[in-house]
């Protein structure tokens, strides 16, 4: 069920990380109409309905835990992402990068099929998050258009020259050392999801989920198959449990005491630890895919190293070009942010006190990791809106990757 809900949410979630309160004006009081403009981009309105739809998809029932101050801050962050998206979509229209109706339909159907829900269940979940097929298709259309624009803009990047590759290698020797560690696969069990009525699991439901997975593995079921069918992390489910490489030091920090020693000294490749282990608010059932007993320094002539550097430099240049293109587009656009104007006009109407909300034991556990998040990127939902960091909008710029390529990551 977790994978299903995650895929539905991905139909329209084009903003980064923020939690907002639907149905209130930006200063914390009631009264904003869903047809009011929250902002305009070159005269095109972004309505309160669009903002509140993003609110409903992002909040996941946690908005009651946040103060009006936190909610207003998060709301402005989400609106900024919507503004950036609209700016880039308008650029895509001018550049002829808008997808056809057939492409949008194909993508919508692909995501619907991947949800593994019946048509009735899918429609019910769409309704639950305030979505319609029309709004979902529009979000997909904008996302595909911006992706096409990004590909068009960054298609000018040429491969690095041999001397650039050699210089990068010489300047980053530590990035090309394979450190002692292990490549792990995982089946993820998330306490947040899968309970009755879409609520977090209670203890009995969680135990039943764990028992089902463990029983199948102990009956010699194929780990990859079980992972695809049961893992509640989209990445590991899609890749048949394939997860990531951990150095020995990373395992010591991330897992319970003794885990790293067990993996490195007692386990054989292909062996499974059937007991679920805590990891960033969720539980993982781990399989050792392979381990590296000693540190190994790769050279520029080691197979794959030149390609790693080439890919890294090309992606870094694409990111810089895409970010610069977006900055220019934002600078050229005429943007009016009405929510921000109202906050400035009413600076003293926002309370910083959080409401007193009694969390159930299930919810307390759940708050350590957002539903559907990647295993390497968990965060407390309540803390997301409380921070002042700007969410990453899925506009023209791909996710940043400014560090040198890590030799130990998913080789």
Task: Provide an overview of this structure.
The protein has helices at residues 2-10, 48-59, 68-94, 101-114, 119-128, 133-154, 162-171, 203-218, 223-230, 234-238, 248-254, 259-265, 305-332, 338-345, 361-366, 381-386, and strands spanning 37-41, 44-47, 177-178, 181-189, 242-247, 272-279, 282-292, 296-297, 335-337. It is of the alpha+beta class. The strands form three sheets. It has a four-stranded antiparallel β-sheet with strand order 5-4-7-6. It is built from 16 helices and nine strands.
Distance between the termini: 30 Å
Strand content: 5-15%
Shape field = globular
Query: Which structural class is indicated by helix and strand composition?
Result: alpha+beta
Keywords:
Triger factor/SurA peptide-binding fold, disordered N terminus, alpha+beta, disordered C terminus, four-stranded antiparallel sheet, Chitinase A, domain 3, 411 residues, 2 domains, three-stranded antiparallel sheet, 16 helices
